[in-house]
């Protein structure tokens, strides 16, 4: 069984997604709003992305809201940036404070084998200071980048209805 798990993890290829704002360092933690098949993640974005996704006022605290439709799995928890090396995908290129997609995901394949029929599934991993978010869903959409967490929160809740 161990060799099967090890060989399946070798298929996992972690790729950085630069079309999504990167998480901010030393900022508030992300939050999730979810329904049976939709997951919305909101988090503060890195200052390096302010110009690309702005403009923002100097007193803004920009948050990004990302929708994951047809989600069949999601979790938010350890490890965080400090102990990211314990994550099973760390050796495949998972990096801190970044947005990733896992190509040839063993997790997505495992879920597809158990839960069928489901739409084609993609595996996303976003790393934060204190936690890591993982989601297996059909796709992702950056719904918006807002000047404050309260606005992102309202948008996230409106998307689960």
Overall outline: globular
Radius of gyration: 16 Å
- The helical percent reads 10-25%
Poorly predicted runs are 1-9
* Biggest sheet architecture: 5 strands, antiparallel
Question: What does it look like?
Answer:
This protein is an alpha+beta fold and 161 residues long. The protein has one domain (2-159). It is 21% helix and 31% strand. It is built from four helices and nine strands, in the order H-E-E-E-H-E-E-E-H-E-E-E-H. It has helices at 2-11, 50-53, 106-114, 149-159; strands at residues 13-16, 31-34, 38-44, 63-69, 73-77, 99-103, 122-127, 132-137, 141-146. The strands form two sheets. Strands 1-6-7-8-5 form a five-stranded antiparallel beta sheet, covered by helices on one side. Strand 2 (31-34) and strand 3 form a beta hairpin. It is globular.
Task: Spell out the key features of this protein.
globular; single chain; 4 helices; disordered N terminus; four-stranded antiparallel β-sheet
């Amino acid at each position: 069984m161990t060799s099967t798990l090890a060989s399946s993890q070798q298929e996992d290829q972690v790729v950085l997604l630069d079309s999504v704002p990167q998480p901010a360092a030393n900022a508030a933690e992300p939050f999730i709003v979810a329904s049976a098949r939709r997951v919305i993640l909101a988090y503060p974005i890195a200052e390096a992305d302010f110009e690309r996704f702005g403009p923002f006022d100097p007193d803004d605290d920009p948050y990004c809201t990302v929708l994951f439709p047809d989600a069949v799995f999601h979790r938010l928890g350890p490890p965080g940036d400090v102990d990211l090396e314990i994550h099973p995908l760390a050796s495949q290129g998972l990096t801190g404070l970044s947005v990733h997609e896992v190509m040839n995901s063993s997790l997505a394949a495992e879920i597809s084998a158990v839960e069928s029929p489901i739409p084609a599934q993609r595996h996303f991993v976003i790393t934060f200071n204190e936690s890591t978010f993982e989601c297996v869903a059909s796709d992702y959409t950056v719904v918006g980048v807002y000047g404050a967490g309260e606005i992102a929160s309202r948008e996230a809740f409106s998307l689960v209805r």
